[in-house]
Amino acid sequence: MRRLFWLAMGITIGALVVRKLSRAAEKLTPQGVAGALVEGLRDLADAIGEFGADVRAAASAREDELRSGTGLDAPLPERGAAELPGRHSAPPAQG
Description:
about 100 residues, mainly alpha
C-alpha cells in the first residue's frame, strides 16, 4: 500500500511539472511571444488613452478656472454701449 501511495504521488507531481514546463515552453514559441507583445501593446495603448483623458479633464478644469478668473465668459455689452478708452462717441468741437 505504501508503494502505491508513492507511485501515485510521483505520477501526480510528474504530471504537474510537465504541465508547467509545457506552458513555459509555449510562451517561448514565436506565437507565444507575439501574443505577449500584442497584449503588452494593448495595455500600453489603454494606459496612454487614460492618460490623455486625464490631461483633457485637467485642462478643461484649468480653462474654466482661468475663464472665470479673467471674466472671459461675461456677457458682452450691448451694441454701442461700449467705448474704447480715449475715444468719444462725438468728435470734439473745434473752434
